[in-house]
Structures are given as structure tokens and as C-alpha cells.
Amino acid sequence: MGAPEGRNFSSEAAVEVGRRAVTTIRRRWTFPFPIGTSMMAKLHGLQADYVFRGVDHIVRMTVEGNLLEVEVEDRLTTDQWRGEFDAAFIEDLTHKTGNFKQFGIFCNMLESALAQSSESVTLDLLTYSDLESLRNRKIGVGPRHLPAAKSSPLSSKRYLILIYSVEFDR
């Protein structure tokens, strides 16, 4: 259909942000895209329209066994970003945030966020620059600018953030 080739996410950057954000009021997991349900042994998928920072996107997620696949597409530009994550990666990532979730529970949370069926879980889509701003704000440093040569590959990446807010954190 003429859509650009999908782009991969940086797992290292995602983990780094997830660890640092755990002390904020909301727990944040950086997670590149897909989702499923509690029936992990079978293929399950979901597609939803989602607005990130005023821009319409389509988010597709599938779970097959212990593999989560997520794809996000910008409706206007048709840019696409994809990521595949196994259960061990997801569980390790949530453990590093200080709020461990089993793979199936994490997938259910992501599905709820996409379906917007719970006020406790929401999503955000960030660029590398957005992550740097969060990181700098967290440590109390002003914004840093990377040279153009280094920022160009990073500028094409996106980071899907699953935000889990419990009642007294809101």
C-alpha cells in the first residue's frame, strides 16, 4: 500500500526511561508496540485508533504464545513503527520499573489502554527527544542537543509508554 518500512525500537533506551520514571507519581513503562488477551496460547489481536499528542494513529497488537507484537501507524504520514517482545523481556522490563507484571497481565493492561476501558492505564507515544526531555527533567538538567549526525537515526524511533496509575497516584 506504499507505507514506509517499519522501524524498530531501542530496547536499551526504553529500559533506561522505565527505571528512571518509576519514582514519579505515575509508573511508566517504555514499550514499543503490540497487545493481546489472557488467552496467551492462541493468537489474539486488537486494532484501535488512538490519538497521541493531537495526532491520529492506528495501533495494532497481537499476542501469540509468549510473543507480543505491536505496530503503530501515523494516520497522516503512514509512517509505521513495529516491535516484537517475548515474555521474558516484558517481565524483565516491568521488574526494572519496580512494579513487576506477568506477561499475560501486562498484555491485558495494554489491551485495556488501547480499548480505553480503564482509567488506570493509558498510553503515550514519545520520540527520542521526548525521552531526553523526561530524563533531563528527572535529574534537573536543562535540555541537551545532540549533533545532527547522531540525532537523525534516533529521530525516526518511537517509544510506546504504558502508564499505570493506581487510585491514590492520580
TrEMBL record:
Taxonomic path: Eukaryota, Metazoa, Chordata, Craniata, Vertebrata
InterPro entries noted in UniProt: CCDC61_N
Name of the protein this chain belongs to: Coiled-coil domain containing 61
Organism: Anolis carolinensis (Green anole)
CDD domains (alphabetical): HD_CCDC61_N
Lineage top rank: taxon: Eukaryota
